[in-house]
Structures are given as structure tokens and as C-alpha cells.
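Incident review: delayed structure delivery

Summary: a single-chain prediction request sat in the queue longer than the usual turnaround. Root cause was a stuck worker, restarted by the on-call engineer. No data loss occurred. The affected request and its eventual output are reproduced below so the record is complete for anyone auditing the incident later.

Affected input:
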Amino acid sequence: MKTFFLAAALMVCFGAVAQNSYISKVWVADSGDGTYKNPIIYADYSDPDVCRVGDDYWMTASSFNCSPGLPILHSKDMVNWTIVNHALPRQIPREVYDLPQHGKGVWAPSIRYHNKEFYIYWGDPDFGIYMVKTADPRGRWSNPVLVKPGKGLIDACPLWDTDGRAYVAHAYAGSRAGMGSFMAVFEMTPDGTKTITESRLVFDGHEGNPTVEGAKFHKYNGYYWILAPAGGVARGWQLAMRSKDIYGPYEYRKVLAQGKSPVNGPHQGAWVDTPNGENWFYHFQDVGIYGRIIHLQPMRWIDGWPVMGIDEDGDGCGEPVMSWKKPNVGKTYPVTTPQESDEFDSLSLGKQWQWHANYSPLWAYYAGDKGYMRLFSAVQPATKTYGNLMDCPNLLLQKFPAPEFSAVTKVTFKPNVVGERAGFIVMGYSYAMLALDYTRESIVLSQVECRNAEKNGEEKVNASQKLTSDTFFLKITVKEGDKCTFFYSEDGNSYTQIGKEFTAREGRWIGAKVGYFINRPSMSSGGGWLDVDWFRIE
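Output delivered after worker restart:
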């Protein structure tokens, strides 16, 4: 394990400070000269929503089946962000989400501040609209409340009106509801926990604005506003709808589209202001294996309508900018980025990591005082249902952080059962990994791939190498074009490529991820483990 220096000790004692100062080696949006570049986060924080409270900005995003869910990010200047929490430690119903449920779970949450509390609403397309709340977004959030049960209810956003009444705008998932391309509104109790009325359709997008979804609900300048994308994730546009009555009718305009920019389908996001009255709009861009990455656009109000990005022809519909002057928040703050690398010097899991399903406490021991994370082998699911690692809940993964990067790790494999396998993996609809397999004679390193894993594809060994020790250095390099190459080293200095180049694929509504697992083929006491000394993005 790594040698501890004073800096490491300080990191343990003052972990929050250390996290706040993290700067990526592969993607930094803050240019350091008062400007920023898009995307501000080159990672899969799908369906972002942001709210401002004082001079603090808080973001959440879709997490689907990954656990913990509902990431909470914090910023002081709208450009530099840090992951500070997750609002949903485990998804419910537990009996459903204890196993991978690809593409299900948390869809398009909204975060709002009301009556000195933060609220997050989201739609689970199979169960309904949920809510959690807290007074401290860095602390514990409440247990989820099922506000409105039902199939196909998605993309929920609350609004507390000036008269004290409360409402939710939402969309429908056609795959569950049988129909989509609608916006709907229902009234709920002022405490935000129960419905009062049935949903009422307030906008029909079938003619000209199909797949309207991702509602963000506001009241401004005497109008009720629903900001929502239409046209599909990859090639759509952003709408603004307004009405004097909360139930409509809503007039609408297209206010953001790709135009001549390289940003396809600028999709749902968040309107946020600064204390001095500037207006800004966050949205995502779908970029395949990298997921849905986050952009920030300047926004102006012109003739009573929002215009996002830059509108050179003056038609009221802007297009995304690739760089711009940073928001004026009155101060200059240090450059920081969402955490990626991990020295595992904490007694808890780093905020950048998520499991493939609800986690079990038997999967990992966070030995930060010793400088490592220990992953214990889990029994593979029953043979009749287990196809490949798509069915495996104990995958510990994090998002791809940039168009090009290397992920490097130092691990020690301590198997105890013949057939135990640990892996350093790129995961998606297809996956590939550096697999460590235990035989009675030795540990064998293999480069393994599984194409079309979602269709029960079979794993294929491309190359193997017997190893002479139990401590190894593993590296995965990702290049534009979705190409991944795999390397290993037994001394940490000289790396050898192994196997074939692998073309990565995204997952169900998420980008590709990188991380670890360790499994054994059968139930037995005294399974082995994988000690992860460090993980570094370079």
C-alpha cells in the first residue's frame, strides 16, 4: 500500500477541503481568464436541474438504476462544480432495485428550495412520482415519498404558487403510459406529499413538437412557464411555454436549437439567475458513450420570452455557444471539477462512485486509515438468470470524464476460491475488461470482451498472461472514436498492451463507465477480495 505522508494525513482529516480543490487532468471548463468553455462538465450528468439559494448553486441529475442515486453537486460560480452528496442512498422498492434495472429508476429530477427546505421530485416510469427533502443538501435527505403513484409518470417539477398552493408539471413515458408527447399539471398538498387533483393535460406536442418532456416549472413576470425539450434526445430543441392560467392554454416558442453549432439536440435543463439578475440556462448534449454532458448558455429575456445561447439572426431561437464570459457572481472562485481520481484515503465511498444496483454492506470495506478500498467477492446470480455482467449488481463504476483519458489503478488480488474473478472494466451495452482469474496454479490476467451484452452476448478471451505476483497495475486508455486499449504492469513503470482494441458502447440511457468488480462462482465461506490502492484519471 502507498506510503503515507503528511499531505495524506491532512487529506484524511480535512477530506472536504481536499475534495473541493480537485482539478481534473483531462477536462477543465474554467479557462482561467474570466471565460469558460462548453461543456462545463464532460461527464454523464443527464437531465440536469439547478437551483440557486443565496450565492450557492445546487445541481442534481438522473441516476436511473445506479446507487447511490440523485447526485448533489455544488458550485459558487456556476462553472466550477464539486460532487458533495447523493440524496437517494438506495432506491425503492428495494426488492426491485437490489438487482440491476437498466434504464429504470430515477428519471429527470427537479431540485427546488421552498420554505427553508430543498425538495427533489422525480418520476420513476414504473411506479410514479417521488419526493425527498432536506434542510441541508450536504446532509441526510428524507426517505422517498410516493406523491403520485402510476405508470409512465416522468420528469416531474414542483411549483409553489404565490397563494400557497402547490403544483407539479410532468410528462408521460409512452413505453409505460401508452401515449407520450404531453405536458400535464396536477395540484398537490402545500407540504408537497400528496396529490389533490388528477393530472390535466396542458400541452399536446404531437403536431410539431413530438416527445415533449423534461418539464421545468416556473412563475415569472405574471406568467406560468414550462420549459421543456421536444424532438428527441439526440436531435431535438428547447421550448418555452407560457400561460396566465396554470392549466393553460399555453402559447409556446422554440428558444434553443442546434443551428450551426456542433451541439446536437440541446436538451432539457435549468433556468437559473444570479444575485445581480443575470440569467443562464443549463442543458445537456447526448454524445454516445460519454453520456449526456452539461452545457451552460447565456440567457436573455427579449419581448417577454427567453432566448438561450446566441441569436445572430434575431428570430428568437438561439443556438449554443462553445465559450463565453463566466457568470458575474460578484467574486472569483478557485477552479475545481467533479472528483475522478481516488486515493481511497477515506472511510466512506468517494462521491464519484456508484454501484450497478442497490449496494450491500458486504461488498466493500473502506479502509481509509490503511489507504485502500477492499472489495469482497460476491456470489454470481443464479445460473438460470445470470447471463453476463449486465446482470451483476456489484459493479462499482464511475462516469467517463472526457473525450480522451487513461484510467490507471493499483490493485492486489487475494482470491480464496477457485474460479474467483476480479476485473477492471469498461461497462456498457458491450463491455471489456482486464480480468484476474484464480486457478489452483496461479493468477491469470486476461483481456476479455463481451459484445452486445444486453442481448445475452457471450464473453470472449482475446489474450491471457500468467502473473508472478498478486499486486498489479492496470490501465485502460480511451481515445476519441470510442476506442479503448488495455495495459498491465507488475512494477508500475513498464506497461504491456494486452488483447485487442475495444469499441465502447453506452448503456441504457447512460454513458459508458469504468470501474471494478469481484465475483465467485458459488456460495462459500471465506471468499477472497480485491484491494484497490488507488485509481487515477490521467
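Verification: Residues 354-537 form a domain with the Jelly Rolls fold (CATH 2.60.120.200).
Action items: add queue-age alerting; document worker restart procedure.
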